[in-house]
Design a protein that fits this description.
Elements lengths: L11 H7 L3 H10 L12 H13 L5 H10 L15 H10 L2 H15 L11 E2 L2 E2 L20
Antiparallel strand pairs: 1-2
């Protein structure tokens, strides 16, 4: 029986990483001013991969993230990491890499996958109110107050 090359049977993290274009993210990292300053090996793509790992594992601190990566050391090669990133490296990268890099990656991914995302905006006539739909724009809402977009 041959393995299917689609998503069934693959870990969630592997599926998420397959949606990322490494070359495009590295290009965004290089073009974002200050993103690659003082960087030897821990580029923007690796930083994003490590942070997504922490988010999907529900880690709350860099210490937890480092310990979690050590526990999964045998799987790091599959994630595109060839070494365990130390807590000090993560802390320095979090300080030095500008948030614009992550904002640019988010914008790129939103633009690329917008047609696959569910729109959280209520329908045009919802509870007696009308909402203007803007073509090509997806409004993100917090979970508490649906009148104020984030």
């Amino acid at each position: 029986m041959s393995k299917d090359s689609h998503f069934s049977g693959q870990p969630v993290y592997s599926q998420v990483l397959k949606l990322l274009d490494k070359d495009k993210i590295l290009q965004i990292s290089r073009t974002t001013q200050g993103s690659e300053a003082y960087v030897k090996r821990f580029d923007g793509y690796k930083h994003l991969v490590v942070m997504l790992f922490g988010v999907l594992k529900h880690f709350d601190s860099l210490r937890e993230l480092e310990i979690g990566m050590k526990a999964e050391a045998h799987k790091l090669r599959h994630l595109g990491l060839d070494y365990i990133v130390r807590r000090s490296t993560l802390a320095e990268a979090d300080i030095r890499r500008p948030q614009e890099f992550f904002a640019n990656v988010y914008s790129y991914l939103l633009e690329k996958y917008a047609k696959f995302l569910a729109n959280s905006r209520p329908p045009k006539s919802y509870k007696g109110r009308t909402h203007e739909q803007r073509p090509g724009k997806i409004a993100l809402y917090d979970g508490f107050n649906h009148d104020n977009p984030i």
